[in-house]
Design a protein that fits this description.
16% strand, 4 strands, globular, Glutaredoxin
Length: 108
């Protein structure tokens, strides 16, 4: 992966406590998996930054290498990779995601 791409990715993750690499934007998700994660984050009322990987092919490919995770969306909380849609959905259903966000003072 190009060093510049790696730095862009790291900047997004470092500068946003909750960062979602997704297809589309939080306002207009462009795939069902991204929409599912956006809806979960809305339900939890968490502030997050959505990074549209469709707008930059190098980020789209780079984030998969960076995380060693093959799919998008990808959720990061306090610089830590949480997972993709299935993991986020499962964590939401068990209450684990809410507890994680609460423990980091990211939601009430």
């Amino acid at each position: 992966m190009d060093q510049q791409v790696k730095e862009k990715i790291e900047n997004e993750i470092s500068n946003n406590e909750v960062c979602l690499f997704m297809k589309g934007t939080p306002e207009v998700p462009e795939c069902g998996f991204s929409m599912a994660v956006v809806n979960i984050l809305k339900l939890l009322e968490v502030n997050y930054k959505g990074v549209n990987v469709l707008a930059d092919q190098s980020i789209r490919e780079g984030i998969k290498i960076y995380s060693e995770w093959p799919t998008i969306p990808q959720l990061y909380v306090n610089k830590e990779f949480i997972g993709g849609c299935d993991i986020v959905k499962e964590m939401f259903e068990t209450g684990e995601l809410k507890n994680l966000l609460k423990s980091k003072n990211l939601i009430k």
